[in-house]
Amino acid sequence: xxxxxxxxxxxxxxxxxxxxxxxxxxxxxxxxxxxxxxxxxxxxxxxxxxxxxxxxxxxxxxxxxxxxxxxxxxxxxxxxxxxxxxxxxxxxxxxxxxxxxxxxxxxxxxxxxxxxxxxx
Length: 120
Description:
Blueprint: E1 3-7, H1 11-22, E2 27-31, H2 37-44, E3 48-52, H3 60-70, E4 75-80, H4 88-96, E5 101-104, H5 109-119
Parallel strand pairs: 1-2, 1-3, 3-4, 4-5
């Protein structure tokens, strides 16, 4: 069973993604921000990480940089719904800094599953 580390500050988004991904028989570890990501990766040893970009406390870009530096072989999917003054360029930046792939919200769960399968 593949393990996913899912980081998103929006509880409803996490809930929806967990429910959607459960149908594909993944084990999912949820975090509400990237501050605890390195410890979670060390203890949980996920196969892939999915992180939102716009979050309080620690944004996804900083999380991607830290994780990619410490765990360069861990695949990362960056997701974002945007926000004020946020566009697709943030997803491009995330990919340049270590994300393996990017997706815009709202997410298509089948597309996300296909991407997970390709990256793990």
